[in-house]
Amino acid sequence: MTTLSLTINGQKHGPMDVRDDLSMNDFLREILGMTGTKFGCGAAQCLSCAIIVDEPDGTSYTSPTCIAPAVNFDGKSIRTVEGHAKDGQLSALQKAFIDHFAFQCGYCTAGFLNEGQVLLERLARAPVPREALEQTIADALDGHLCRCTGYIKYHEAVRDVILADSKRYLMATK
Amino acid sequence: MRPSRREFVKWFSAGGISVSLSHLGLAKEARFASHETLPGRGNFNPAAKGTGRVDGVAKVTGAKLYASDFRANDLPGWPQATSHAILVRANDATHVYTGVDLARLSGALKPSVVVTAADLERIGTQVPHFYAGDLFCPLGKTPLYLGQPVALLIFERFDVFDQARLVLRDGTFVKFGEETGPVIAPDYGSYRFTRVAGALPEKPDIYSPILAGWVSPKKVQNAALPVWSPLAKEMPADYTKAAKHGEQIRAELAAEDASLLVLDREFETQSVDPMFLEPECGLAWYNGKGGNLELVLGVQSPYEAAESIAHLLAKARAPYKPAHINAQFAHVGGGFGGRDHTPFILYVALAAICFPGKPVRLAHDRYQQFQGGIKRHPIKMRSRIGIDRSTGKIKAFAADHVLDGGGLVNFSANVAVVAATGAIGIYDIPKVDVTTVAMHSRGVTAGSMRGYGTLQTMTALEVLIDEAAGELKLDPIEFRRRNALKQNGRTMTGNPYIVSVRTPEILDKLEKHPIWQQRAQFKQASSDRLVGTGVACVTKDYGSGADCSLGRVELGADGKIAIFCDHVEMGNGIGTALANRVAGHLGTIADEVSVARVDSYDVLGLVTSGDPYTMDQKTQDAASRNPRWVPSISSATSASIGAHVGTHSSAEAARVIFRFGLWPAALELWRIPKTDPRARQWPTARWENGQLMMNGLEPLALPALAATAHARGFVTGAVAHSFSRWAWSRARFPLFGEQWRAEIDALAIRRGNGKFERINRSSVKFPPTDNNRIGTAYTSMCGTVVRVEIERATGALRIAKAYSVFECGTALVPEVVMGQSHGGFAMGVGYALLETLPPFEGGPGNGEWNLGRYLIARGSDLPLRDLEIEMLKPLTPDEEPKGMAEVVMIPIVPALINAIHDATGHRFRALPVTASLLKGVLA
């Protein structure tokens, strides 16, 4: 057993004792009841289980939770799909997903939302040229599997959020 | 009427068990309702603003929607703790099963309960006919198929379950003894579809399934395949007649005839997994001692699931027999057919029955989903086609199909039939003879999956057509145009389609598209890559021949609309489609849409009997005299019927509310007396921006109309049931002094705030039982052109550009329709190029398959910026919606194979065409 403390969507959890081999996915879903993070394959292939890990330096990355032990997240700050809306207001990306009909069954949506949000925040720190945008989005989202949509509307939603605030996310054109 | 979660409706009784079905979103408890239900009840519904889906907010905020999201402590009234079960399956089907060795689960890791075949014997369960076969392989028998369950292990605490499943991961604890070889079982069904047209198109057919019925050969010997010869001993007379015509067609194709181009080709398709992203899951709680069995399930066929569980336990001994079963249904995380009639739900129920007092969760992981989930049928096909060289017209077609149905019968016979009757695709062929047989094998069970057999047979056909066009030196699109079935032409079973046939328009679009126009220009090969262009055009039926729709619409005094529907949301946007279709009658998007609701229509008091597919006319006529009788009550959400069927009853209910609620309210507000001729002009009224418009009259807002309707006791709610057997049932209902005619067979109405009351139909006309001879009458079309680039060195294929064009009548939610067409394209690409499951020992039944090994299309496999999809506008503003979710995945498959041939000169006759296979032919 290991004592685990972490911050989820700004709220502190722990310290609590967890088994060393308990997956982060089961910690969220079975221990905390936070089932917005999904279980798809248990092999880090579909990334429907991906969450956001926030680093102390202000950067973030996504991590699968199905193969990662919960204890690996000790001391970390993470975000899940349940934490994107603030004060009842949906994030720009959540709204874009809805406006674009980006998802169908919605089981992969949490993973795409987290990945897209990390991309937005990365571009806000390090904008890319407009001509690199399509490939940047494609590279960012390619690890995520969706069986319903064909991905196009997810890509369009992310692109539209970026283009709607291009000064923030894209390099200035000369 | 808005029943609480505790006011369950008793729908049917099986073996003394009362059964009810309800919906997760009905809980009154605030915490549950605010976080875990769909929009409505005051929650933000983006669709009401004209954008997004009704389930949009729930899905982007991680609300509990799916069966896999729920634990016991989420459910009001349940115990707090959840126990967990593991379904152990056989990974060998050629040796005698000798038991599970659980020695490695020592001490605290021991399961609380182990359920085996012997326990079922003791309990007295009975297997529903549809799932015939041992639910658990008994000791001493060879498993019927790879992946057949052998035991259910139940663990009271999650931690124990979690550690135990890791310990058991390798599957070596399932023990086998003597080698027996696989179990040999009879085939699941064999049919022959033969049609001989008259001498001229306008002449009646000489022979067809419509004229003579469907035929099947008698089993005359223990051969692996049926004996198709009409001369075989003791064949049924109807079969012999069909077979004589069929053999004549085959003889003509085999004859030396220089005027006829005859191609005789084989094609083989693979087994694939639906790979819906949410593995199957369920939660159940049996309070023991003959009390209630509560279930939370996620399936495409809720009514069937509850019925099957009731059958399973109907003869169980005390204390295993519940008095009451209540099944609640959640959204599903993808279905694609694989959750339609799944045996998984039986094991969820058994887990609870065998651990009374404790809620038990049974959830597949992905390995288990591959090992036990329903698969697509692999089909071996041999096709012969004869074409008049001078006219380029197809004269005859003969084919033989062999489907591998895997271990349980499931829908194998049905898939075989749909595959066979789809085998001539978009074409008008005067002489057709197709035999089909679905075989048992030791493979994982195959069943319903998007395309339902036609994906396989139409791929084989469109590749054959492409080859024939090449042989005849005809343009592939012109060849298709020359042979395309026209609006009133007859299908393989001898009936015409009863919906629009827009193949010519689609072929024209394909021909004019730049991808096709520029194919020669792009074919210029470079040193490092080959370029090719391919085309295909298909048609796919929607509907199953016995489809039901239940709908309830309520209009509040404030003008807010609530809709309840029995069809399931599996990503297909049924909730949003319902909202939009009802808005056409009531002027605005519903505030609340509740799907998978099979509990809201008790006022209709429906009863049913017999089998709608096999019933004779006399029986149907006699049963119809009971005004509450219908051929079937509820059907699965499948067969692309979401738009056409799923929304139908709600739309009809809304029409009743308009005619007998809002329209009389409008007349009052306009002060138009009933004697005024304008009082009969309700069909000319129209809605604009939530206001009812009539020329020369003041626009009326829906809330004002609703308030008046409530105040005056006009109709403010309606419940309807409808049934389609390639045509809707029609009935008359006495309403307010007139006979209301509608394409429904049961109706209830509410006046003002009163209770719903059933209106007994005064007459009904159910579609004739002879319609069961129809292969399909509803169909939609789709065509695709695609350009591929193939690296010579590696065989890596890139889809450079693609264009698909399809028609679907009136699109209820165009954005969802486009999304489904994107998804269909992606699934088609995976099927053509990536996905495959080996049969038998190396396949998914061994429990070792997962994503990574099994490849589905990623974004980088698709032309995300170079895929153009065109949805044709409806032919008329009021054209009915048509099912489209299956047809859109089909043509990309043969179009890719044809493009690969164009690029490489090699025609592949088996799927998938992987990069390594391509590299092989380029070497």
From TrEMBL, chain A:
Q: Which GO terms describe its molecular function?
A: 2 iron, 2 sulfur cluster binding; metal ion binding; oxidoreductase activity, acting on the aldehyde or oxo group of donors
Species this chain originates from: Bradyrhizobium centrolobii
Q: Which InterPro entries match?
A: 2Fe-2S-bd, 2Fe-2S-bd_dom_sf, 2Fe-2S_ferredoxin-like_sf, 2Fe-2S_ferredoxin-type, Aldehyde_Oxdr_Iron-Sulfur, Beta-grasp_dom_sf
The molecule here is called (2Fe-2S)-binding protein
Q: Where is the 2Fe-2S ferredoxin-type domain?
A: 2-84
Matching Pfam families: Fer2, Fer2_2
From TrEMBL, chain B:
> InterPro entries under this entry?
Ald_Oxase/Xan_DH_a/b_sf, Ald_Oxase/xanthine_DH-like, AldOxase/xan_DH_MoCoBD1, AldOxase/xan_DH_MoCoBD2, AldOxase/xan_DH_Mopterin-bd_sf
Segments traversing the membrane: none
Pfam families (UniProt xref): MoCoBD_1, MoCoBD_2
Aldehyde oxidase/xanthine dehydrogenase second molybdopterin binding domain residues: 511-600, 769-837
Q: Which molecular function GO terms apply here?
A: iron ion binding; oxidoreductase activity
Domain named Aldehyde oxidase/xanthine dehydrogenase first molybdopterin binding: which ranges?
A: 251-484
Q: PANTHER family recorded for this chain?
A: ALDEHYDE OXIDOREDUCTASE MOLYBDENUM-BINDING SUBUNIT PAOC, XANTHINE DEHYDROGENASE
> What is the protein name for this chain?
Xanthine dehydrogenase
